[in-house]
Amino acid sequence: MAQSNPPFMSGVPELLLLRLLDQSDMYGYELVRSIRAATGEAISLGEGVIYPVLHSLERNGSLKSKRKAVSGRTRVYYSLTGKGRQRLGKLQDDWRRIQGGIANALEVPSHA
Length: 112
Hints:
Blueprint lengths: L11 H12 L2 E2 H11 L8 H13 L3 E8 L2 E8 L1 H26 L5
Antiparallel strand pairs: 1-3, 2-3
Helix pairs in contact: 1-4, 2-3
């Protein structure tokens, strides 16, 4: 299994959460499982990483939450707002630009 939180992962949890919540409303642990599944187990983020990001996104207006009773227990479901969709678009554009730059750098022959 891959290292769970390497230093270059800064910003990735926000991007993944926004992307998944753009597809459907989810609760915290469901998001943890969905990140693993969506990344083919390459990225595994625990609840200790996910919940602070969710709370920060909710505070800045990118997400809203709603409590729902499910099978006798209450779960907090998160959904994307218009501001969240705008943020997702910007992060996706940034990520694609950075991904392309890194791909270019990896293809450059080394000067040994």
